[in-house]
Amino acid sequence: MIFDLVSRPDFLLDIATNNRSKLLVAHAKKQNTYVQKIYRALNLFWKYGQEPNALLPAYKLSGGLGKERPAGKVKRGRPVQVATPTFLVFGGVNTEEDDKTKIQKAMRRFGLKGRKVPFSKVYEQMLKEFYSEELLLAESEQREPIVPSYRSFLYWAKKLIPQNELIRKQTNKGDFERNRRGLIGSATDHTEVPGSCFELDATVLDVHIVSEFQRNHVLGRPTLYCLVDKESRMIVGLHVSMEYASWRAGRQALVNSFTSKKQYCERFGIEIEEGDWPCQHIPQRLLCDRGEFICKDAEQLAVPLIGHLSIAPPYRADWKGTVERRFKILNDTLVHQLMGTTRGRHFIRGDKDPRLDAALTLNEVTKMLIDAVLEHNSSIFESLAAQTKLLIEFDLKPTPFNYWAIHLQKHRHALIKANEADIRARLLPPVTVSMTSKGIRLNKDMYYQCEREEFDSWKTIARNTGSWKLEARIDQDNSSFIYVRLQSNENFTRCELMKLSSIFEERHIADVVFFEDWKTLQLKNNKPGKASLERYNRKNETIKNAKESLNSELPLDSKAEKTRDMKERRRQVILDNRLKSDDLEHAGELSGEITGSSYSASNKKNKVISLLKRKKDEKL
């Protein structure tokens, strides 16, 4: 229609200089159409790039998108199709405004109650609540009820209820905030350098362990505490114990993260250098759960040491997403492959009880977890590559270890170092010990000593005047040492386990508790058995026979007569016993030996005893 016009070189000048172009009017007559149609085509052609596609119809504007259309008598939508022509299918009815209102009420009353409810259940409740009269009338008249179909209900429920409201109202607030809300950023948006924030959390490991003393005794599932640097993803500390999630176990994890790891790894037979796990620092801020750290002890002990303690809201694990992700990594790479693992799921009927496969002790599980942590710290995480330029400048792999090390090397961190003794004295659990004659006693069977000169003098005083109480700090991971305040005006002194208590060397507190319980049960269950009762009866029978024999003897004139000549009688008994043996031929010699003590003093002096002579030295 407009091809000949736009092809003419003088048409653009003509239409731009004249209010009414004669060329356009003549072309409209030639095309047998009106001028306004030519103008509309030209406007579209120039507006959308002067190409043939500019004249395509605007389908996106057609059909009345978003406009409500009044329903007529004819049923809208696809009819129900059946393959058998003998069946009569009810065509259905159009959804009226009253039906839409009822659908909205049904959804808000039955479907948006803070939990996931199937649409079919809501549709059924809607019919019973709002269409009960129609259903009864249709049943009495033997016809199809005039109610919206299930497909119509689905269509209008999703159209009338906003999708965002549908998602929010079909779950609780905590689940929506954790798992369904839109993400607003990264976990490291509010951390700038390593040490800005450590995340601390605990989880029950998905594996059952056994006792160190008796492997056929299952102790249950241990608790793992883990500390992770939020910026670098570096696991800076861990603690595994049989304690439940509490401040008592949490502070052990803090001690582990704030102190050197070399000595800690040596306890489990893992030889590392200080640079292999260079995490012995205090962070600028600690983010943890409110369960174990919202207490008076944490405020008095941890806050002065750390500086700032942040408590996550309840049911908001997403606030500690970094450490939660480390738990999943450790489960996938190690825990779910161990003997006695529950694989993170509840017991299903028919499955083998995982407790029957338990064979690993607490120390063995801890040893493997340390190796898994070292492996994690050396693994590549793509998200670390875009967080800093230092990895690119020094051509380092984006691993937590490299991220941590290069920032410490370039002094771009918020980490603080502290004295290990001060950390342990502040965070370790306080106990009361006794200074005794054997040493410093903890519990009933654990004795410690130190290298101070006056320590032996204190033991002497304790043996002669009685023991006295002392303040101490214990490490639940290692019973080989404790910290004791030996005098009231001194700091804590490290005391090592004595040799007489070497059975507790490098034992966890759980093993110590097991030993105490075992000993208590052994003492409690120590009841006389059959053999013991037989021995007791024989003793009583012997005593009874002896008394009867004594009573059958003739009475003596005096008490002194019973003990008179007691030594002579004893010699005679000895001689009689020897004569009963196989040395009867030496009876004379024995008699002389027994009665030799009755010789006179002069005979004793005249008796000559020959001794072997030593060979004289030739030089002498």
From TrEMBL:
**Top-rank taxon, per record:** Bacteria
What name does the UniProt record give this protein?
Integrase catalytic domain-containing protein
Organism of derivation = Rheinheimera baltica
Q: Which residues form the signal peptide?
A: none
Region of interest: Disordered = 547-569
What range(s) does the Integrase catalytic domain occupy? 190-397
Q: Per the record, where are the segments of Basic and acidic residues compositional bias?
A: 556-569
Q: Which Gene3D superfamilies match?
A: Ribonuclease H-like superfamily/Ribonuclease H
